[in-house]
From TrEMBL, chain B:
Protein name: General L-amino acid transport system permease protein
Localization terms from the record: Cell inner membrane; Cell membrane
Pfam families: BPD_transp_1 (PF00528)
Protein's UniProt keywords contain Cytoplasm: no
Start and end residues of each ABC transmembrane type-1 domain: 237-428
GO molecular function, one term: transmembrane transporter activity
Main location: membrane
Transmembrane segments annotated in the record for this chain: 42-64, 106-124, 136-154, 174-196, 203-222, 234-261, 282-300, 356-378, 412-435
Any GO BP annotation: amino acid transport
InterPro entries hit by this protein: AA_ABC_transptr_permease_3TM (IPR010065), ArtM/GltK/GlnP/TcyL/YhdX-like (IPR043429), MetI-like (IPR000515), MetI-like_sf (IPR035906)
Provenance organism: Kaistia soli DSM 19436
Family affiliation: Belongs to the binding-protein-dependent transport system permease family. HisMQ subfamily.
Entry keywords, A to Z: Cell membrane, Membrane, Transmembrane, Transmembrane helix, Transport
Annotated Gene Ontology cellular component terms: ATP-binding cassette (ABC) transporter complex
UniProtKB/TrEMBL annotation, chain C:
Compartments where found: Cell inner membrane; Cell membrane
Membrane-related topology note: Multi-pass membrane protein
Organism: Kaistia soli DSM 19436
Protein name: General L-amino acid ABC transporter membrane protein
Annotated Pfam families: BPD_transp_1 (PF00528)
Lineage of origin: Bacteria, Pseudomonadati, Pseudomonadota, Alphaproteobacteria, Hyphomicrobiales
Automatic annotation (TrEMBL), chains D, E:
Coiled coil: none
Listed name of the protein: General L-amino acid transport system ATP-binding protein
SMART domains: AAA (SM00382)
Any Pfam family matching the protein: ABC_tran
């Protein structure tokens, strides 16, 4: 502990990563205990960067209430659990967000039979949500600012929210839009439900680490940037070996043929190569877990590269 | 008095026993006595019978007649108006093992099997080798289960010896252990000398403890070639049983200590025990669990962390210990003063009196109470679902929302299944408690 | 306990005698024990302080004044998103007391009925009671809670429909909707009339008892009392020109679907989370109370009711004057425990979205990170409750203890 | 134990009504399940009669007198108390119980009530007597059984003999016309037996109709008009005490008497 | 109850050491809270002496002998057993208890252990004797109290008299130099008293130093060197049994003797 997280991680031989146990597309384990999801892939990316091996990671399933203590106490080295970056969390929970891995926003899911097409029509609605998240607060802000009465029914666990919503206890189910897509899949008839277009909050989700360990912070931060940069550079899991030899100086720096960037942050120089080799680039991760071809079918939207109409943008490696 | 002369009477022939009127015996007599003994009772009987029918019909319809028994996904149950047993069938392995890797589940099976094999003769009053058996259950079994379930091979690295003498690893740990043991034995020896006890005696006691510790470390540190399985992947009945059994095994000695503490003549010890017991009994388990899951990490120095399951276990064990202490105290109180005095008069010391005379008797008396409190504990394990552990109930709840099987009846089927499992466990335990209670009564009378 | 002249004649040195003195040993042990405790507590406090400081969380209860910002679905006192955390906790606390209080009443009534039923000479009734007890006691409460909550949700009509009873009670998935009394000027007088009615009824009851003692005949004090309690407020109500009006729940079955159903802000709604929790708590606890009651009644020997019968007391009188007073001595202590258990178990509310103290506190904890303070508040509340109860119980117990030779 | 009385007093001679029937049992039969406990019991008790029932254990003595105030139900035959026939009619049962007092082997006082409250409970609630009056009556009977000073104690504070006397007083407070005793002294220590028997003798002297299951043969000799011997659920022999003790007719009676008298 | 022995045997005459003090109590005082139970007790017991303590209930007899092996703590004065002074020193208390055997009114056998285990427990755990040897010793003493065949039964299966004999054997297994008896026969049925007293007489014959609280005056006559009479927490009178019984000096002693002898 005293030596700094990076050294600790290297010593014990794996990254301990806090994830969501039951959010399809972000963090979920199947029957065999295989984990998948964007957040999970990010953990693997960090493992790849450090060890050159995406499997050197252990997952701690965390619920909303425990996640911050788990990180603060050192139970996990890294929190990658669809957590919204807010100022108060930076300032008063002792966290440092390394960046944004997914631009999300809070939305509403309703039954199609309600005949509602906009969140602004939800005046007087009963809304189900999970307690202990920013969603409860956003919800209150949204309805108050639009002067609409509402009633919130807040459950401890996702499963309960969904069961109550399905039973008809509330008109709307609110959480981050990505979560809504994931939860909708679990309903008996997903097609009977729709997600309203309004996004009522900014929910930049990102990995977080403990405050006060800059070295570790840098490693995790640049792992995220490497994923985005790779997409920009057109480097994929499949083609990186072949492009490794290309003449593009940017790629050369990326794969570690040129420069000493890896050792600068306490890793090997081929760290970024390992990341892509291990988990693919950001786009690949997105597509594999939540993209249009998956059951969730979420469009890239804001999460597209800045060059393609989105706002994902990473500082260059140089 | 002469008026009475006429009443003199001597029976000439005896009246033999006659058969009771039909209204007294057989099914009719039974029904008359138990169901129709008065007009009100007759009405009640009819109402009760109707009530039973009214309750049972929907239950039977839902669980049996309208139930779906086969199918591969939710399509089978989507339209069902009865239980979706197909879903339970599909998920049964998960309900038992959680996400424990499939190719490693034999390890869990062994643990279950060992428990059954060791526990059954323990529960049968007449079965021999009770002491050995208990020893196995309280020492070998937990250790073996720990290694089997987690994979063992925990990284013992040692703490304080400088790296340049010997690097972190089992060797450093062993060295440090030996060093510490040596110091402890030395200190104890000195202390014993000072107290005028025979040094060899206290030394050997400490030696046994340290030796046992060494064995424990050797076993949990050794590499048996088992794949490690994180507790995060444990789930279902496995977690339920781990929480319940560990809570029980850990709370017993703790409970004994607390109970003795509560009866101690030393005010400080007594007050501390009473405070602990009453605080634990005064608050809901779930706040204790919250505390274990949210607050315990705050209590620990930076970098020291506990596994989440372990934290829940600590919370449960401490909580249970308080209840156990009260049960055991009841047992201690039932031991007559004469037993204490008899033991004192033959020259036994306090620890000897407790170990040889009082506790064996007290614990026997409280077996029903212990089983009773084990039932509560077993039911309470479901609360760990609230702090995000996947016990049987948590696992069922999580799976009911699995996209593959979600249907209107899936959730309720899961709950019914969980209810049946818990009921079977708890009911048999309560029967067992009643059985031992009767047996104790008899042996006390006889 | 002066040890006299230690070691004056017998062997062994003074030092050995002191070390072997049990009271000296006890003292040393206790000092060591306290030292260990203090060290332990200090270590924990130190770690906690350091951890909190690292996380930038200010210790102390100052956060209670900050704005909560989240909504609560059931509140007995005024509360909005703009209220403080402290107020939110108060709402939670009152909700706990409400569900526990009502649960206790229902569980007691049900428990007594089932306990007596279990001793019924009617075989069927006794069997039903036994089955009830054996089933409910051996299934975890949390499971029952889920079962009842979701069963209730599935059994009642959806948000846009309703069942109506007696014209004023409406039930749907949104809960039980009833008229909400609105108090105008003069409502206080009606309240006063009610209080006067109750006092008068008590006086009448007392008069009735006196009268019975004096003449042997019991006047119908009960009926007079009921008439007073209902009649007086009614008279006041009409005499003052109906100062209490009722805000009837408005049910709308026109317009866009979302607008249909009961309108927010009209009438009074008792939410289904409350019912689910109440049902689970009281049914579960009733099973335990029933066992307590059975044990209490069985503890009163058969001879007691035989003696009462042979004196000519009827069944009801035997129960009332002979069996129940004796059974109660046995029943009350465990009954109190059950009440405490029920109150503690109400913390499971968190699983079904009923905003009790633990549930609201959990949200506050999560928003503020003030774990130590929140857990302290929980502990103080529940501990205070049990200490208070056992204190009262001890007094009561001492008063009713049977006088022995 | 029988010495306490056996030695002294001569039999009490008292008028017994020859026409006024206090209680009649006609061909009464009772079964416990398959077991035939009472067989063809015929018994007529005149007002003022004092009857002692004896017999070996299990012969049905207790059952017989418990049938009289319907603590047990009989299945065949008639029981007529004070001209009221005992049937399933609750009102009649109530009436009979009001006329019949019963004293048990184990006193069965109500431990949660004081002695005085024990005695006034039934008068107040059954006879609807004003409390004051009930207390006066109770004190009267308590004085008669010689424990007025214990009125405000609880049963647990009294000795067995005192408790049994309270039980008698409690029954008397209902002014019963018939008193039933079921082995009232057999749970008592020897020195207490006398004090209870003295009270019973006093009652007999006042002409109370009494049916008493007891093995106190001295008491039987001194007080009873008639001794009934039961065995196997039937009445084997009945006669005046003098004849009964000196000249029993039936073999079983002889055997029984030889056992208890030489004890 | 005293007949069992009183009739027959003549007193046993045995050598008593005149120099070897087994036990000495000097000005011992003890209080229970405010209550002064033992007052200035002075008692010197020589090795081989057999002392019987008698006195009315509550006079402090039990308390006195319980002080000797420190089941009760005294507050003033000295108790010296076998040259060891009883103070708060745990080691000394242990030593004294090892030298002193005690037999209680209610036996206090350990119900969860067999007879043999009851007897071997202390030798094994206190004297650190090998189990085999402890069992041999135990069997020896069990044979002496005439119940070797019960060795593997549990106390609950034995009669009271047998249990008390086991209790004596259990004490003997520790080879005590002094034996204390606190009314060892008063919880027994008359027919069992004799078997226990016989064992005690046997012990006396072998020269065991014994202090015995008992009301068995026959035993006292036959066995004791000295009878001590206590009342109100003090020793009122002590003398040889012959003189004590035939010619008591103190008024209270006379009263007491008249009561228990004519009972
Ligand atoms: N409630 C009952 N159910 C079944 N059998 C009973 C019941 N009460 C009594 N008996 C049986 O009826 C028989 C007569 O019992 P009863 O008590 O009348 O005898 P008793 O003559 O009073 O004997 P004792 O002198 O022992 O009191 C006995 O064999 C007894 O076991
Ligand atoms: N633990 C105690 N606390 C307070 N008082 C006690 C205690 N033990 C005994 N006493 C009192 O001390 C007095 C002497 O008691 P002790 O048992 O020595 O009398 P005893 O002579 O053995 O009488 P007995 O013949 O009834 O056994 C009695 O008044 C008793 O009530
Ligand atoms: Mg009888
Ligand atoms: Mg005594």
């Amino acid at each position: 502990a005293s030596a700094g997280t990076l050294e600790d991680v290297k010593a014990k031989g794996f990254v301990q990563c806090g994830v969501n146990p039951s959010l399809i597309g972000f963090g979920v384990a199947d029957e065999k205990g295989e984990w998948s999801g964007i957040d999970v892939s990010f953990c693997r990316a960090v493992a790849s960067a450090i060890f050159g091996d995406p499997t050197k990671v252990k997952f701690s399933p965390l619920n909303a209430k425990e996640r911050f203590t788990a990180l603060q106490s050192g139970e996990v080295d890294l929190l990658s659990r669809n957590t919204t970056w807010t100022m108060s969390r930076d300032s008063s929970l002792g966290l440092m967000f390394v960046g944004v891995s997914y631009y999300d926003g809070q939305g509403f899911m309703v039954r199609k039979s309600l005949g509602v097409s906009s969140a602004l029509e939800l005046s007087g609605a009963k809304v189900c949500t999970q307690t202990g998240t920013t969603t409860e607060l956003n919800l209150a802000d949204y309805f108050r600012s639009h002067n609409m009465p509402y009633e919130v029914v807040a459950f401890e666990k996702n499963e309960e929210v969904l069961q109550a919503y399905e039973a008809g206890r509330c008109d709307a189910y609110t959480t981050d839009a990505s979560g809504l897509y994931a939860e909708r899949l679990k309903l008996t008839n997903p097609d009977d439900h729709m997600i309203l277009p309004e996004i009522i909050s900014k929910e930049p989700l990102g990995p977080a680490v403990r405050q006060g360990d800059d070295k570790w912070f840098t490693v995790v931060k640049w792992t995220l940037f490497a994923l985005i940069n790779a997409e920009e550079l057109g480097l994929t899991k499949a083609n990186i070996d072949e492009k490794k030899t290309a003449d593009n100086p940017e790629i050369k720096r990326f794969v570690g043929v040129e420069g000493d960037f890896g050792t600068g942050i306490g890793l090997t120089n081929d760290w970024a190569y390992n990341v892509i080799k291990g988990v693919g680039n950001y786009g690949e991760i997105f597509d594999a877990n939540v993209g249009p071809s998956t059951k969730l079918g979420i469009a890239r939207g804001l999460n597209n590269l800045w060059s393609k109409g989105g706002i994902q943008y990473a500082p260059p490696i140089r | 008095m002469s008026t009475m002369a006429s009443t003199a009477y001597v029976r000439s022939e005896m009246v033999g026993p006659q058969k009771a009127p039909p209204s007294m015996i057989g099914p009719i007599g039974w029904a008359r006595k138990n169901l129709f003994s008065s007009p009100i009772n007759s009405v009640l009987s009819i109402v009760a019978a109707l009530f039973i029918v009214w309750c049972l019909i929907p239950v039977i319809r839902f669980t049996l007649i309208d139930a779906v028994w086969t199918g591969d996904d939710r399509a089978a149950c989507a339209q069902a108006s009865g239980a979706c047993w197909a879903y339970v069938k599909a998920y049964l392995p998960q309900f038992i093992y959680g996400r424990y890797p499939i190719d490693q589940r034999w390890r869990v099976d062994i643990v279950f099997l060992m428990l059954a094999v060791a526990l059954v003769p323990m529960l049968i009053p007449r079965a021999p080798f009770k002491r050995l058996n208990a020893l196995f259950l309280l020492t070998v079994y937990p250790l073996a289960s720990f290694v089997l379930l987690t994979g063992g091979h925990i990284g013992l690295r040692g703490r304080f010896l400088p790296d340049d003498i010997v690097g972190p690893g089992p060797v450093r740990f062993a060295l440090e252990f030996a060093l510490v043991s040596f110091v402890i034995i030395l200190l104890v020896g000195l202390g014993a000398r000072l107290l005028g006890l025979r040094a060899s005696q206290s030394g050997s006691a400490i030696g046994i403890v340290l030796g046992a510790l060494a064995v424990v470390f050797m076993v949990v540190g050794a590499d048996f070639g088992l794949v490690p399985v994180e507790t995060a992947n444990w789930g279902g009945l496995l977690v339920t049983l781990v929480v319940a059994v560990t809570g029980m095994v850990a709370s017993l000695p703790l409970g004994v200590i607390l109970a003795l503490g509560r009866r101690s003549k030393m005010p400080v010890v007594r007050i501390a025990s009473v405070t602990f017991i009453e605080v634990c009994r005064g608050v809901p388990l779930i706040t204790v669990l919250f505390m274990a899951s949210v607050m315990l990490p705050l209590f620990l120095p930076e970098g020291v962390t506990f596994d989440k399951l372990l934290r829940a276990l600590i919370g449960v064990a401490l909580f249970q210990a308080a209840y156990m202490a009260e049960v055991i105290r009841g047992g201690l109180q039932s031991i007559s003063r004469g037993q204490y005095e008899g033991a004192m008069a033959i020259g036994l010391s306090y620890p000897q009196r407790m170990r040889l005379i009082i506790l064996p008797q007290a614990l026997r008396v409280v077996i029903p109470g212990i089983v009773g409190s084990f039932i509560s504990l077993f039911k309470d394990t479901t609360l760990v679902a609230i702090i995000g552990l996947f016990d049987l109930l948590g696992q069922i709840q999580a799976s009911a929302n699995d996209a593959k099987w979600a249907s209107p009846v899936t959730g309720i089927t899961g709950y019914i299944f969980a209810a049946m499992v818990f009921w079977a466990f708890c009911f048999s335990m309560s029967r067992y408690a009643a059985f031992t209670e009767r047996r104790l009564d008899r042996s006390r009378r006889g | 306990m002066a040890a006299g002249d230690i070691g004056a004649r017998s062997f062994g040195g003074r030092a050995a005698a002191i070390i072997n003195n049990p009271s000296v040993r006890g003292l040393v042990f206790q000092i060591a024990f306290v030292a260990a405790l203090v060290w332990f507590a200090w270590d924990i406090a130190d770690n906690t302080a350091r951890n909190l400081q690292k996380a930038n969380i200010a210790a102390g209860f100052g956060f209670l004044d900050r704005t909560a910002g989240f909504g609560i679905v059931q509140k007995l006192v005024y509360y909005t998103e703009a209220s403080s955390y402290g107020r939110a906790l108060l709402v939670g606390l009152l909700n706990t007391l409400l569900v526990a209080g009502l649960g206790i009443v229902i569980a007691t009534i049900l428990g007594f009925i089932i306990g007596v039923a279990r001793l019924s000479p009617n075989w069927l009734i006794a069997r039903i009671a036994t089955a009830y007890i054996e089933i409910l006691r051996n299934i975890p409460l949390l499971l029952q809670l889920f079962f009842w909550y979701f069963a209730v949700l599935r059994a009642v009509p959806g948000m846009r429909e309703k069942w109506t009873f007696l014209g004023i009670f409406h039930i749907n998935i949104g809960g039980l909707h009833v008229p909400r009394p609105v108090f105008a000027d003069g409502a206080g007088t009606v309240g006063l009339a009610l209080i006067i009615g109750v006092v008068a009824a008590v006086l009448v009851a007392r008069w009735g008892r006196k009268r019975q003692e004096a003449t042997g005949q019991a006047p119908p004090a009960g009926w007079i009392g009921v008439a007073l309690i209902i009649g007086l407020p009614l008279i006041a109500y009409f005499a003052l020109g109906r100062p209490i009006s009722f805000d009837v729940p408005v049910f709308n079955d026109q317009g866009p679907i979302l607008r249909r159903g009961f309108q927010a802000g009209s009438g009074m709604t008792v939410i289904p989370e409350f019912f689910g929790l109440l049902l689970a708590l009281s049914l579960y606890t009733a099973a335990y109370i029933a066992e307590t009651v059975r044990a209490g009644i069985s503890a009163v020997g058969h001879g007691q009711s035989e003696a009462a019968h042979s004196l000519g007391l009827r069944n009801g009188q035997t129960l009332r004057y002979v069996v129940i007073p004796q059974a109660m001595r046995v029943i009350i202590p465990p009954l109190t425990n059950q009440y405490l258990n029920l109150t503690k178990n109400s913390s499971l509310a968190v699983a079904v979205a009923y905003p009790d103290l633990v549930s609201v506190g959990g949200t506050v904890l999560n928003q503020t990170g003030q774990a130590v303070e929140m857990v302290t508040i929980w502990m103080i509340f529940y501990l205070g409750l049990s200490l208070l109860t056992s204190f009262v119980m001890n007094i009561w117990n001492r008063r009713v203890a049977l006088v022995e030779r | 134990m029988t010495e306490a009385i056996a030695v002294a007093e001569p039999p009490i001679a008292l008028k017994v009504s020859s026409t006024d029937v206090a209680l009649e049992m006609i061909d009464v039969n009772k079964w416990f399940g398959e077991f035939h406990v009472l067989r063809d019991i015929n018994l007529k008790v005149m007002r003022g009669e004092r009857i002692v029932i004896a017999g070996p254990s299990g012969s049905g003595k207790s059952t017989l007198i418990r049938c009289i105030n319907r603590l047990e139900e009989h299945q065949k035959g008639k029981i007529i108390v004070d001209q009221i026939e005992l049937t399933n009619d609750l009102r009649k049962i109530d009436e009979v119980r009001r006329e019949v007092g019963m004293v048990f082997q184990h006193f069965n006082l109500f431990p949660h009530l004081t002695i005085l409250e024990n005695c006034t409970l039934a008068p107040i609630h059954v006879r609807k007597m004003p409390k004051k009056e009930a207390e006066d009556v109770a004190m009267h009977y308590l004085t008669r059984v010689k424990i007025p000073e214990q009125a405000n104690k609880y049963p647990g504070q009294l000795s067995g003999g005192q408790q049994q006397r309270v039980a008698i007083a409690r029954s008397l407070c209902m002014s019963p016309r018939v008193m039933l005793f079921d082995e009232p002294t057999s749970a008592l220590d020897p020195e207490m037996i006398k004090e209870v028997l003295d009270v019973m003798v006093g009652l007999a002297l006042e002409g109370m109709t009494m049916i008493c299951v007891t093995h106190e043969m001295g008491f039987a000799r001194q007080v009873a008009n008639r001794v009934i011997f039961m065995d196997g659920g039937q009445i084997i022999e009945q006669d005046e005490p003098e004849t009964f003790f000196t000249n029993p007719k039936h073999e079983r009676t002889k055997l029984f008497l030889s056992q208890i008298l030489h004890h």
